[in-house]
Amino acid sequence: MSAALVAALRSAPLPRPALLVSGGTRETCADDDLQLSLWICYRLRTRGFDDVHPAWDDHPALAQFQGALEARWEQGLRALEETTPAVPLDDAARAELREHQAFWHPRREMRSALRDIHGDAYGSRDERTHSVLFTVTLRDLDCATSVDEMPAQTLALANALSLFGMHQRLVGALVGFLTAVDTIGGDPFAQLLPVQCPPDDVRLGFTVCHELHARLVRHVHAACEAGRSSLRGRWLVTQARVNVGC
Fold it and tell me: Which one, of 70, 68, 41, lies nearest residue 56 by Cα?
């Protein structure tokens, strides 16, 4: 699926482009193909790629493809529970975990923009404006690097943050996710919590962040215990300047 997406994006769209979402047999947060496909779609909305044909800009087939991916991804996130036990990491494993963190971890500079995003979540801004605010924030931070090395567990955290941030209806989950970041050693976002957010939505984001991070830590631990790297080198995606889809 992700290979077909990359191949399609490098050429002009066919009259009726067929971007199909495969069902997959793995859990969504461990599905390499789904996570990479979704990450590519989100990256198109923020920074783009050098080799994407400009005719894909705002193409309805691409929007439908992303929507189908997001529907499957959101369903998987809503089914998550905090069930993964904590595991200890030695110094080498912690150093490797920091490489994963550098890919998905929200930066301190996101605070002011996120206040603007969810501070008016129940006000006058529409879904499009909300999405643009979030994508501009990600574009300025350039938090997507070395995707060729990142496993599904790391992409899942980045994609959960993007899903919650790009949809106004999920602003409570975004706040819960960012609040949870503080409890796993990141910057404190608890002061961003607006009283208007439904508690169930906030709980969703909090649970997703904790459980996905626990799974990433477990992945790093298992790899280091087996004497191999938790990073990967199988995905090669050219990043940079063409801003497709936004």
Answer: 41
What are the CA-CA distances from residue 217 to residues 88, 113, 140, 181, 211 (Å)? 9, 29, 27, 14, 10
Average pLDDT, the chain: 78
For the chain, how many structural domains are there in total?
1
- How far apart are alpha carbons 44 and 51 in whole angstroms? 11
Dist CA 229 CA 223 (whole Å): 6
Q: What is the DSSP string of 5-68?
A: HHHHHTSPPPSS--------SS-GGG-HHHHHHHHHHHHHHHT--TTS-GGGTT-HHHHHHHHH
Structure tokens at 50: 């050098």
Find the domain containing 159 and state its range. 1-81+89-246
Tokens (6 digits) for 201: 């939505």
pLDDT exceeds cutoff 60 at 197: yes
Asked if residue 148 has pLDDT above 70, the reply is yes
pLDDT for the residue numbered 108: 59
211, containing H or E segment: helix 199-225
What is the spatial distance between Cα 182 and Cα 231, in angstroms, rounded to a whole number?
Answer: 24
Cα separation, 138 vs 113, whole angstroms: 10
By percentage, how much of the chain surpasses pLDDT 70?
A: 71
User: What is the reported pTM?
Assistant: 0.81
Query: Bigger pLDDT: 74 or 199?
Result: 74
Residue 218 is predicted with a pLDDT of: 96
